[in-house]
Specification:
Helix content of chain A: 40-55%
CATH topology of the largest domain in chain A: D-Maltodextrin-Binding Protein, domain 2
Radius of gyration of chain B: 25 Å
CATH topology of the largest domain in chain B: MetI-like fold
Number of domains of chain B: 2
Largest sheet of chain A: 12 strands, mixed
CATH class of the largest domain in chain B: Mainly Alpha
Helix content of chain B: 55-70%
CATH superfamily of the largest domain in chain B: MetI-like
Number of helices of chain B: 14
Structural class of chain A: alpha/beta
Number of strands of chain A: 14
Largest sheet of chain B: none
Strand content of chain B: under 5%
Shape of chain B: flat
Number of strands of chain B: 0
CATH superfamily of the largest domain in chain A: Periplasmic binding protein-like II
Oligomer: heterodimer
Distance between the termini of chain A: 37 Å
Distance between the termini of chain B: 19 Å
Strand content of chain A: 15-25%
Number of helices of chain A: 18
Number of domains of chain A: 2
Structural class of chain B: mainly alpha
Largest interface: A-B, 36 and 31 residues
CATH architecture of the largest domain in chain B: Orthogonal Bundle
Radius of gyration of chain A: 23 Å
């Protein structure tokens, strides 16, 4: 592996610049390896180069596990990418590390960004400057197994719309053996998957609370609403017995195996669920609370420009960034990768919103929140521990929420 | 001791004298030259790849390096943070639970098996191979197989068996009390083959004349075990105690792979120090903090190894 990389490095170093592009500016685009994303980017680069013959774009990819380390190491060596893809949650670290430069206000006017993109794009803003723009965004929705719905006498065309309906449907679908062991889940429970987002940004709000202050620097879910949201979640296992953390190892595995009626997951799961052959599944919006209040969690990878890029390379990088965040690029991205367009006009077309699969995800974007994590893995762990304290140790939801809030606040404070 | 050993200064006796490329140097110089030529490469390699990073970890542990910033010297702040973190103390307890339970249990089982295996002829090689097989398997692959074994009924073999006998299913990896023993069982099982082979080599090295003499003198099996086998196995036992202790203190693969979706088990109940280091370094990117943890792990390993060597030393 290392040898191959070394060899590749040597070869690229020795390759002679093409004669036809004697005047050409070459810029590097970096992203992590994920087949459809790499393919989509290849296609975008081809179109971009056709329109801009004086610019060539080289796509460089790394495995996801190494990606951040590579960018940092390359930056130290002064060989960083001109345009790079980054998760919105890495922004604080990347800005502090001097890896990114603010987007030029002439090429990317702020009022235009805010008018065109979904509001979640503000997660890329620090101190009045934007540091990146997304091509595509992700949101959560409720996946449901139409076969299990039909078998349990529920209407497969009418998935639950509220939390109460969700619990009621789960109860009908869930099956246990005589000893009380779970055979089929009504609703999956997996805090290590997407449930911690569901709890944070959706359930806490639906029970009348707020997870954080607006700047996400102060935890606020240590409240009656937070405790209610947690007990709603843990009751799915303890009281209603419709789900069980760890059943079939993972929630998505249980759903794929046809052993779960419903699961909450993101757009990125579509590719994996599309391989399901044994049953038909559908997508619905996340259930609302009794008052009809809806919320969602959205995340995305954005594209930013390296801190050290200047001159004609910067001009080329800005042109390329403008292209990969254009409506045309977003359409290609939706077709190839299956991720939702980040601009309203591209996303909310009649065709897209009527699409039975993309529609519910797109509608979710309108109410979506984007948690500004300082350390997503560590903050996720506090949510997992919070649920486990109630489920395994029998702690009360109030105490558990309070403890989780304290731990998460410490993680945020330490990072600041 | 024969005086020839004195002159060879640690080199093995009777080795052909190296050199002959010129007569200007003495035999001894030439031999040293060749020895160091061959040793230079590994010494250089280890210095750059092993020793330098190890020593650098001490320096990093006193900084706030997070991969992105310029490391800033912050004194012992990382250590203060570590020792005041209740999660560290839980991890500390877990690590020692692996050590204190894992090492004696695995040695006891492997000695018993080796002792019994040493006495049978029928199927000896086959059984020995069976015991050794898990040691050859990738820890990650093995951990995943065991992870499935421990699942609740529809997929977990163990729970399937339990419920088919009408017994209560056990949560295993989903329980704060059962998770650590569940993982330890797999770690013991995986290391057993190696320990059995080493014990058997130790047993085979004991001259059979000792046993014959003991039997002629009318010693019972138990007395033979206590007076002859165990004392003569001492070097083997010391080696295995030290190796197995270091192994359990550094346990990672099994824990990481068996609990990937909640790394370190429910509420951190299975998390060993090495996993905490891994998470601090490569998930939170707190390199300085992670370096401080590795220094602590290093000191623990050093202390335990020295303590064991001292306890098990030859008392003359």
């Amino acid at each position: 592996m290392k040898k191959a990389l070394l060899l590749a490095g040597l070869l690229s170093g020795f390759s002679l610049p093409a004669f036809t592009a004697a005047q050409a500016v070459e810029i590097e685009y970096w992203q992590y390896i994920y087949e459809t994303r790499v393919n989509a980017m290849d296609q975008l680069i081809k179109n971009f180069e056709a329109a801009n013959p004086d610019i060539t774009v080289k796509q460089v990819t790394f495995p996801y596990a190494d990606y951040q380390t590579r960018i940092v190491a390359a930056n130290m060596a002064g060989k960083g990418p001109d345009v790079m893809q980054l998760f919105y949650g890495w922004l604080d670290k990347f800005v502090a590390g001097g890896l990114l430069q603010p987007l030029g206000k002439e090429a990317f006017p702020h009022d235009k960004i805010e008018a065109d993109f979904f509001p979640i794009v503000t997660a890329m803003q620090r101190d009045g400057e934007y540091y990146g723009l997304p091509t595509a965004v992700r949101s959560l929705a409720l996946f449901y197994n139409k076969k299990l719905f039909a078998d349990s006498g529920l209407d497969p065309a009418n998935p639950p719309k509220t939390l109460d309906e969700l619990v009621a449907a789960s109860k009908v679908i869930a099956k246990h053996d005589d000893a009380g062991n779970m055979l089929t889940e009504g609703m999956t429970m997996d805090m290590s998957g997407q449930d911690h987002h569901w709890w944070r940004e959706v359930l806490v709000r639906q029970f009348g609370g707020e997870p954080y202050t607006d700047d996400y620097r102060t935890v606020k879910y240590d409240s009656e609403a937070g405790a209610k949201a947690l007990s709603f979640y843990t009751d799915l296992q303890l009281k209603e017995k419709v789900g069980q953390i760890g059943f079939m190892d993972e929630g998505q595995a249980a759903f794929r195996a046809g052993k779960a009626g419903m699961t909450i997951d993101g757009t990125f799961r579509l590719g994996s669920f599309k391989q399901i052959k044994d049953f038909e599944w559908g997508v619905a919006e996340l259930p609302a609370n009794a008052d009809g209040y809806q919320s969602n969690y959205s995340s995305y990878f954005a594209n930013g420009i390296g801190a050290k890029v200047k001159g004609e390379k910067l001009e080329a990088a800005e042109k390329f960034l403008a292209y990969v965040t254009s409506p045309e690029a977003m359409k290609i991205w939706l077709d190839v990768v299956g991720e939702l367009p980040a601009k309203r006009e591209v996303a909310l077309t009649d065709e897209n919103t009527a699409n039975p699969i993309y529609g519910p995800f797109l509608k979710g974007l309108a109410d979506a929140h984007t948690t500004l994590f300082v350390d997503e893995a560590a903050q996720r762990q506090t949510a997992m521990d919070m649920a486990n304290r109630v489920l395994i140790n029998g702690q009360t939801p109030e105490e558990s929420v309070a403890e989780a809030a304290k731990q998460e606040q410490k993680i945020i404070d330490d990072a600041m | 001791m024969p005086s020839t050993v004195q002159t060879s200064k640690g080199a093995a006796q009777g080795r052909p004298e190296g050199g002959g490329f010129t007569d200007r140097f003495s035999m001894r110089t030439k031999r040293l030259f060749w020895v160091w030529t061959f040793l230079a490469l590994p010494v250089l390699f280890y210095s750059v790849i092993r020793f330098y990073p190890t020593i650098d970890a001490f320096r990093l542990s006193l900084t706030d390096w997070n991969l992105m910033n310029k490391p800033k010297f912050i004194g012992f702040e990382n250590y203060a943070k570590l020792f005041s973190d209740p999660k560290f103390w839980q991890v500390f307890r877990n690590t020692f639970a692996y050590l204190i339970l894992g090492t004696p249990i695995s040695l006891l089982i492997s000695f018993t098996v080796a002792f019994a295996l040493d006495r049978i002829r029928f199927g000896h090689s086959f059984i020995r191979a069976l015991y050794f097989l898990p040691f050859l398997t990738t820890a990650a692959a093995m951990a995943w197989v065991w992870r499935w074994f421990y699942q609740p009924a529809p997929i977990g073999v163990i729970n399937d068996l339990l419920s088919s006998f009408g017994l209560m299913q056990q949560p295993f990896l989903r329980s704060t009390s059962q998770a650590l023993p569940s993982i330890m069982v797999t770690a013991i099982w995986a290391g057993l083959g190696f320990q059995i082979i080493i014990f058997m080599a130790g047993l085979r090295a004991i001259p059979s004349t000792f046993y014959e003499a003991a039997r002629i003198d009318g010693l019972g099996e138990w007395a033979i075990l206590k007076k002859i086998t165990l004392p003569l196995l001492k070097p083997t036992t010391i080696f295995l105690v030290v190796m197995s202790s270091i192994g359990f203190l550094r346990i990672f693969d099994q824990v990481y792979n068996m609990t990937t979706n909640d790394p370190g088990g429910p509420l951190g109940s299975t998390k060993p120090l090495v996993l905490m280091i891994y998470q601090s370094a490569f998930s939170s990117y707190q390199m300085g903090y992670a370096a401080a943890q590795t220094v602590v792990l290093f000191l623990i390993l050093l202390a335990i190894s020295l303590l064991q060597l001292w306890i098990l030393r030859d008392k003359k």
